[in-house]
Every structure is written in C-alpha cells, then in structure tokens.
Amino acid sequence: MTDRTPPGQEVVLRLDHVTKEFVLRHTRSLKEALVWLVKGRKGDLSAKFKALEDLSLTVHDGESVALLGLNGSGKSTTLKIISGVMRPDTGTIGVRGRVAGLIEVGAGFHLDLPGRDNVYLNAAILGMTKEEIDAKFDDIVAFSEIGDFIDTEVKFYSSGMYLRLAFAVAVHTDPDVFLVDEILAVGDEPFQRKCIARIQELVSRGKTLVVVSHDLELVQQICERGVVMEKGRMVFDGTCAEAVGFLRERNRGAA
Ligand SMILES: Nc1ncnc2c1ncn2[C@@H]1O[C@H](COP(=O)(O)OP(=O)(O)OP(=O)(O)O)[C@@H](O)[C@H]1O
C-alpha cells in the first residue's frame, strides 16, 4: 500500500465491555406454554444466545482493522453496533466523526424509487446535505458506472448494480470511519478492484477503516491490524498478517 498515513493517537472508536444477546425462540408448543402458565410463569420461555460477550475494542484515527473469524463469531453484529443500527445490551460504544459504510447493501434503498432518488435518500441518511449531494451526484453515478439505469427503479437492478450504487454513495459521503461488511464479493472483478483502490485511497488519506471479510488475502492488502473473534469474544488482536496466521492455525486445529 502506498502513502499510508501512520495512525495518530486519537481514539475514534471504542467499544467497552459490549454484550449483545439475541432471543432464539419466542414461542414454544401450546403444551409448554400451558405448563409455564400453570407453574406461575416461572422461568423464561425463550432461549437466549450471546452474539457478543464482553467485547472491548479501541481503534485509533487512521487505523485499518480487519474483523476475522468463523461464521457466527459476531463480526457483523460488531459492525452493526459500531454503525448504530443496533444497540448493545450492556457496555458502551463511542464513535468520533461521521461513520458510513456498507453493512447491509443498500439497506437504506427504497425499491420503488429510481436510482437517482435513492442516491439522495441514502446519502441524506448517511449525513450529507442536499447541496453536498448535488455537488457529488455526477461523481457518484460515474463511480457506479450504472449509466442510464440511474433513472430506473432499483427493484429492476441486478444485485451487482445495487451494490455499485450503494458503494458509490457510501464512499462519497467522505466518512471518518468507514465500515465494510463482506460485500465486495457481490461486485464483478473490475468493480471489486476499483472498490479496493478506493478503500486504500481512503486509508492513505488517514480515514479509519473496519472491514469484515472471509477473504484473508484481500484483508491483508487493505488492513494493517487484525482482530480475530470467536463465539462473540476477541481472541486475537495484532497485525493483520499475524491475525490471519492465528486464524488459519486455529482453523487447522478445529478441522
Ligand atoms: N437479529 C438476530 N437475531 C437472532 N440472532 C442473530 C441476529 N443477528 C445475529 N444473530 C446471531 O448472532 C451470531 C453472530 O452473528 P454475526 O452475523 O455477527 O456473525 P458473523 O461473525 O458476522 O458471521 P458470518 O461470518 O457468517 O457473517 C450468529 O449466531 C447469528 O445467528
């Protein structure tokens, strides 16, 4: 990677003893519910599952961090908590500056609206003013390469087109902290390369990056730091290369 600005000391992101639980089952059989009622509603009918357990993570200005781990280890939940779409049950989360990213591709998109309106809608959700969007609109569309489809309703887009527009909007919001969740896999190879170049450019400009990916080669191109998660806990924090080595070793042991 070229021109990488060394990380400053300022903390931009801090998760402190974060725990997140999900309810696995809301309902049981009628018989189970009756027994529960007869017994005076003792106990809990729903099973709970801890997706994050006592997770603490501090990220400094300009760091590029990869969150790694097996399926279900809590990576996406961590990103959702950082982005604010989900709240932790216990613990605290603090972020300084504008956070943007691709967590659920086009989550803010409205299917019945054309791409053009969705650019305005999504960019506004990500914190841009109308004037800012007006100024960057052409660049956003050019980056997405969707051309005349900008005036087509996004329900007619292919998943790749959808991703392109969502990514184009996100990178043009000029975020301080950029979050990317395994979405690059959706785009075709040339667009993927373009996205990676754009992400590297953001990092070289000193922006902070948190990436979730199973592509261990890709994360080593983009990230300097690697955090490995296992069952909702952090089990390794070091350089990205070390984290990839740790994960591979761990997976070999588990196989
Ligand atoms: N809204 C939800 N309701 C119930 N369980 C959930 C919810 N979101 C996540 N989980 C569970 O929490 C656990 C962690 O999920 P998460 O998506 O954070 O894992 P991940 O490490 O990103 O996995 P993957 O690599 O498969 O994307 C999983 O077992 C998942 O089933």
The percent of residues in helical segments reads 25-40%
Q: What's the pLDDT, averaged over the residues?
A: 87
pLDDT below 50 for ≥5 consecutive residues: which ranges? 1-6
Number of domains: 1
Order of helices and strands: EHEEHEEHHHEHEHEEH
What about the largest sheet? 6 strands, mixed
Spatial ordering of strands, largest sheet:
5-6-7-3-8-9
Spatial gap, N to C terminus:
33 Å
What is the radius of gyration? 20 Å
Strand content range = 25-35%
Quaternary structure classification = single chain
- State the CATH architecture: 3-Layer(aba) Sandwich
CATH topology: Rossmann fold
What do these coordinates show?
With 255 residues, the protein is α/β, with parallel strands linked by helices. It has one domain: Rossmann fold (3-Layer(aba) Sandwich), CATH 3.40.50.300. Helices cover 38% and strands 25% of the residues. The protein has 8 helices and 9 strands. The protein has helices at 30-38, 75-83, 115-125, 130-144, 159-172, 189-204, 216-222, 240-254; strands at residues 11-23, 48-60, 64-69, 90-95, 99-102, 177-181, 208-212, 225-230, 233-239. The strands form 2 sheets. A 6-stranded mixed beta sheet has the order 5-6-7-3-8-9, with helices on both faces. Strands 2-1-4 form a 3-stranded antiparallel beta sheet. Helix 6 links the parallel strand 6 and strand 7 (208-212). The longest helix has 16 residues, at 189-204. The chain is globular, with a radius of gyration of 20 Å. The relative contact order is 0.18. Residues 1-6 have low confidence and may be disordered. Bound molecules: adenosine-5'-triphosphate. The site of adenosine-5'-triphosphate has 10 residues, from helix 2.
